Amino acid sequence: MQALAKKRVVVLGGYGEFSRRVAAGIAALPQVECVLGLPPPAADATRLAQSIGVPFMMLDPNDPASLFRLLEGAFAVVNVRGPFTGRDHLTIPAHCAALGVHYIDPADTREYVEDFTRLTREAREHDALLVTGAGTAPAVTSALTEWLIEGFERVDEIHIFVTPGMGDRREIATARSIVGQVAAPLRVKESGRWREEHSWTRPITIRFPSPIGRRRGYLCDLPDLELFAKRFDARTITARAGFAPGALNMTLATLAAMRVRGWVKRLSPMPTLLVRLAAHLIYVGAKASALRVAVTGVRDSVKEEHVAYLIARNDAGTALSAAPILALVRRWVQEGVKQTGAVPCVGMLGFNDLKPEMAPYDIVLVRH
C-alpha cells in the first residue's frame, strides 16, 4: 500500500524559543514535512534547522521572490515572525490567500485582527483558510471562557488578565505590543454599553497562584474585547495586563497619566526601552507567565462566578502560546481543513484540544 504524501508546512520564524518550539512541534507530526523560513544570517539558520532536524530556506526581506519560493507546494504556513499590529503586516497572509495556502499567526493587536478579516473574500475564492489570533489571546482565553460558561443561560461579565513572562523574544514582543498602547484610547463594553477609556489606566490587583503572586493589572486593548462581545454577548468585557517587576507597572502607569493629561505627547521609544530593561531585571516569578479568565453569569436561574488560571512555570510560557497553533496544524493534517475565509481563532478550539499540546510542560490549571 502506497504511503500517503506528507503535507508541507512552512514555519516562518526567528531565533527565539517560541519559534523553535512551534517548529519542533510541527516537525514531530508524522504527516508533516516541515520547512523553516528564516531571516539572515545563514549560520544561525543552519544551527536552528539542524537542532530541529528540518530543512530551511532563507527569507530575505529585501527579496520578495524568496517568499514565493518558500510557499511553492505548501499546504499551510505558520507565521510567528511578527509583528502583527496593523494592515502593513498583512503581506504574507495576503499572498497565502491568493495562492490557496492555509495560514496561521498569533496576532498582537485588535487592529490587526480587524484588518485581517478583510482577506476573507480572497481566501474563499482560492479555498484557503487564514487564521489569526492563534495565541494566548484570544485563542486560549476564548477556549477557557467556553469551558467556564458551560451550562450558562446568560453570560454577564468576562474579565481577562494576562501577565506575560520575559523569558523569550515572543513574550517580550507581546509585552512591547501591550506597552506600546500606553494611554492610547480604547473601547470597552461595560453594563451593555461601549465607552471610551485609555490603556494602562483603572488598575486592579489580583493574587495569582504561585509563583506569580500579586499582579497589578491595567486596561489594555486585546483583540478579545471586540471578539468576545460578538461571541458571548456579555454585558461587560474587560482585558488587563500586568508585569513584573512592579517598577515597570508603576512607571507605565505614571507615563499613561502624564499622556492622558497632555503633559507628554509621545512615548516612543521609551516603552521599548522599559521592556528591555525589565527583561534584564527578571527574577523567577517574572519568568513565569499567566492568564486569568473570570466569568459571571446565570446557570439554572442562579448567578454564578467561575475563575480559571493557567500558570506557565519554568519558562513554559512559550508552550502555552504555541498550543493553539500546534492544535490547529494537528487537526488540519489529520482531519482536513473544512472551512475557508479569514477568521480569528475564537470558537475554533476547545480547552480539550489544547490540553495535549500543554501536557508535556509545566503548565498548571487552577479553577475556582
Would you write up a description of this structure?
By secondary structure, this protein is α/β, with parallel strands linked by helices. The protein folds into two domains: 7-134 and 317-348, NAD(P)-binding Rossmann-like Domain (Rossmann fold); 136-312, Dihydrodipicolinate Reductase, domain 2, CATH 3.30.360. The chain is built from 14 helices and 16 strands. The strands form three sheets. A seven-stranded parallel β-sheet has the order 3-2-1-4-5-6-15, sandwiched between helices. α8 runs antiparallel to α11 (270-280) and α13 (317-335) crosses α14 (351-358). The protein is globular and about 55 Å long. The mean pLDDT is 87.
Can you give the helix content as a percent range? 25-40%
Q: Give the second-level CATH assignment, the architecture of the largest domain.
A: 2-Layer Sandwich
The fraction of residues assigned to DSSP E strands is 25-35%
CATH topology of the largest domain: Dihydrodipicolinate Reductase, domain 2
CATH homologous superfamily heading of the largest domain: Dihydrodipicolinate Reductase, domain 2
Gross morphology is globular
Query: In angstroms, what separates the terminal alpha carbons?
Result: 52 Å
Largest sheet: 7 strands, parallel
> How would you spell out the order of helices and strands?
EHEHEHEHEHHEHEHEEEEHEHHHEEHEHE
Q: State the low-pLDDT regions, or none.
A: none
Helical/strand content category = alpha/beta
The total beta strand count reads 16
Continuous helix count:
14
Strand line-up across the major sheet: 3-2-1-4-5-6-15
Cα-based radius of gyration, to the nearest Å: 20 Å
Q: What is the domain tally?
A: 2
- Overall residue-averaged pLDDT value: 87
